[in-house]
Amino acid sequence: MELHVVINGRKDLAGQLYQQLRSAIESGRLAAGTQLPPSRLLAEQLSVSRKTVSDTYAQLTYENFLTGVIGKGTYVNARPAQIVRKQSHTQLASSAVIEYWRNMPDFLRHPALEGSLRYDFIGGATSKGQFPHDDWRRCTAHALRQIGGSKGFYSVPEGLPALRNAIARHIAFSRGVNCQDEDVVVCNGAQQALDLISRVLNQPGSRVAIEDPGYPPARLLFSSHGAEVVAVPVDEQGLVVEKIPDGTRMIYVTPSHQFPLGMPMSQARRVALLERAYELGAIIIEDDYDSEFRYEGRPTDSLQSLDERGIVAYVGTFSKTLLPELRLGYAILPPAILEAVIRAKQLTDRHTSTLPQWAMAKFIAEGCLLRHIRRCHAIYAGRRERLLARVATDLSPWLEAIPTDAGFHMVLLFKVPVDLPLLIELARKVEVGLYPLDPFYFREPSRLGLLMGFGAIETLDIDTALDRLRDILQQVI
Question: Of all helices (H) and strands (E), which one includes residue 364?
Answer without folding.
Answer: helix 354-365
